[in-house]
Amino acid sequence: MADILFIFMMLNGIFFILTAALGIVKFRDIYTRLHAATKAATFGFAFIIMAVAMRTGTPTDVTKALAAVLFQFLTAPIAAHMLGRVAIQRGIRPILSPRGETAPVQSR
Question: I want to staple 17 with a disulfide (CB 3.0 to 4.6 A). Which of 11, 44, 47, 71 is the partner?
Answer without folding.
Answer: 44
